[in-house]
Amino acid sequence: MKDSETGPKFDRLRRLRATHELRQINAETRLDMRELVYPMFVVNGKKVRNPVPSMPGICQLSVDEAVIEAERLHSLGIWQFLLFGVPTTKDSVGSRAWLSDEAVQRCIADLRVLIPDATVITDVCLCEYTDHGHCGKLTAEGDVDNDATLPLLTAVAISHAEAGAQVVAPSAMMDGQVAAIRSGLDESGYREVEILGYSAKYASAFYGPFRDAAQSAPQFGDRRSYQMAPTQREEAMLEIYADIDEGADKIMVKPALAYLDVISAAKSRFPAQPLYAYNVSGEYAMLHAAAANGWIDLRLSALETLTGIKRAGADFIITYFAEQAANWLRK
Ligand code: PBG
């Protein structure tokens, strides 16, 4: 009797992974730099590059520097940029957020001229612009006032559209924000501008380094009355459904790593909507910190992370690793 007739049925699995070439050919999941989105923090001034200590390689950039950085990434094959504005002065309602001469609005306009085939996505929120660091206007009691915040977010989105943003991404987690922004954009003549909802955004400890970069840490309390609790998966489906119902063209799950099941559920329940996953600042900082100690390999762990997020169901990944990943993937 021949071996093949007696041997175990599943003795052939290793054949598919025997060599580097076979592993490439048989890969079920592939990373593509066109699916990566690079976030940038834009500040006022000129020739400014302020390194963010908790995010190695990431700087707050003035518009002139941000444009140079975006052009470099674009030449590596990165097509999508997510812009955050960090103002010089703040007030109780974040009124610099919708001014046409603020850094983010000027950066949008310059990027559209210099890299016309790139997609400029903007974060629409107030926490970077308010002196209290919350994502909306406060009531006299110090709660975030949902409905009073909607017109402010709408004004921010319209100012971004006016500057040339193709996609606006409301991240304040106010109920009804997508509907309010959609009708504001439509009434102002920006029907073609897309909305990427930060639909399932969790109140996460992994945003810590971002809040250094964006100078947006809440000055009192936390964001748990508007961002979701980590215990919730079905509620995330409801949030996503609500965003789609209100007119979101694209949806997001954020953070990514502790929420891979939510990414997977979102893709299977809402397969038609492009799904973004945000590989957030704390996830980036963790790998860098461990790698700096020599405890893990940065390239391998970052590529494994991005592959895992993609395999879970994300169509696009917002990641501070975008530039490095593009370089690694080209090799
Ligand atoms: C603004 C916003 C935050 C992030 C993206 N948009 C911070 C927050 O909600 O506190 C976090 C991104 C990251 O950690 O990389 N609301």
Structure description:
- The protein has 331 residues and is an alpha/beta fold.
- The chain is built from 12 helices and 10 strands.
- It has helices spanning 3-6, 20-25, 63-75, 103-114, 146-163, 177-187, 208-213, 234-246, 260-269, 281-292, 298-312, 322-330; strands at residues 36-43, 49-51, 59-62, 80-86, 119-124, 167-170, 194-201, 250-254, 275-279, 316-319.
- An 8-stranded parallel beta barrel has the order 1-4-5-6-7-8-9-10, surrounded by 8 helices.
- Helix 4 links the parallel strand 4 and strand 5.
- The structure holds ligand PBG.
- Ligand PBG binds at residues 123, 125, 127, 135, 171, 207, 210-211, 223, 280-281.
Shape: globular
Give the averaged pLDDT, no decimals: 95
Number of strands: 10
Category by helix and strand content: alpha/beta
How helical, in percent, are the residues? 25-40%
- The share of residues in extended strands comes to 15-25%
Radius of gyration: 21 Å
Task: Record the SSE blueprint.
Elements: H1 3-6, H2 20-25, E1 36-43, E2 49-51, E3 59-62, H3 63-75, E4 80-86, H4 103-114, E5 119-124, H5 146-163, E6 167-170, H6 177-187, E7 194-201, H7 208-213, H8 234-246, E8 250-254, H9 260-269, E9 275-279, H10 281-292, H11 298-312, E10 316-319, H12 322-330
Parallel strand pairs: 1-3, 1-4, 1-10, 4-5, 5-6, 6-7, 7-8, 8-9, 9-10
Antiparallel strand pairs: 2-3
Bound molecules: ligand PBG.
Ligand PBG binds next to helix 7.
Name some characteristics of this structure:
globular, 10 strands, 331 residues, 16% strand, binds ligand PBG, alpha/beta, 39% helix, eight-stranded parallel beta barrel
